[in-house]
Write a structure and sequence with these properties.
Elements: H1 2-52, E1 58-59, E2 65-70, E3 82-91, E4 96-99, H2 100-103, E5 106-109, H3 117-123, E6 131-136, E7 157-166
Antiparallel strand pairs: 1-2, 2-6, 3-4, 3-5, 3-7, 6-7
Length: 167
C-alpha cells in the first residue's frame, strides 16, 4: 500500500511538472510582454515629464536622468564620503511626498546603501553647491513594492536637491 501511495504521488508530481512545462513558455512570454509594456509606459511618462518641464537631462546607462540646474564649486562626491543635502521628493504627478523642510536634511555615506540606488548613482555626478533634478525610474527607486509609506508601487520619483556638504 505504501508503494502504491509513493508511486501515485510520483505520478502526480510528474503530471504537474508536464503541465507547468507546457505552460511555462506561454507564462514567460506573457510576463515578458507585461514587463515590456510597463517599462515602455514608465519611459513615456518620464519623457513627457521632461518635455513639460523643459528639462535638458543627462541620461545614464541604467536609465537614471538628471540635470544640474545650478552648478556648485565645492568638493566632488566620491565613494565613502558623507553627503548632506536639502531635497524635495515628488512623484511624477508632481505630488511632493518628502522634503527636508519637513523631515530635515538627508545625510548618507556614498556607496553604503540606505537610499535608493538611483540616488546613490546620481550623487556621484555632483559637488557641493550643486542644485539638481534627478529622475529615478522605479527599478532604481522603490521598485514593485513602493516604500510602504508614501511612494506607491512602480513609481518614478523625482528628487530636487541641493548638495550642502560632502566630507
Amino acid at each position: 500500500m505504501l508503494l502504491t501511495f509513493v508511486i501515485g504521488c510520483d505520478n502526480v508530481r510528474h503530471y504537474n511538472e508536464e503541465i507547468n512545462n507546457d505552460n511555462s513558455k506561454d507564462k514567460k512570454e506573457s510576463l515578458v510582454k507585461v514587463n515590456k509594456y510597463l517599462v515602455n509606459t514608465e519611459n513615456t511618462e518620464i519623457d513627457n515629464y521632461i518635455r513639460r518641464h523643459n528639462l535638458d537631462v543627462t541620461k545614464t546607462g541604467s536609465g537614471l536622468k538628471y540635470q544640474i540646474t545650478k552648478p556648485g564649486t565645492g568638493d566632488t562626491a566620491v565613494l565613502g564620503k558623507i553627503v548632506t543635502m536639502n531635497y524635495r521628493v515628488k512623484l511624477i504627478t508632481g505630488d511632493i511626498i518628502y522634503s527636508s523642510s519637513e523631515d530635515g536634511p538627508l545625510s548618507f555615506e556614498i556607496g553604503h546603501g540606505g537610499v535608493e540606488s538611483g540616488l546613490e548613482e546620481a550623487i556621484l555626478n555632483f559637488r557641493v553647491g550643486d542644485e539638481a533634478i534627478i529622475i529615478i525610474p522605479s527599478h532604481l527607486g522603490y521598485g514593485l513594492l513602493g516604500d510602504n509609506k508614501k511612494i506607491p508601487q512602480r513609481s518614478t520619483i523625482i528628487y530636487e536637491i541641493e548638495i550642502t556638504n560632502i566630507n
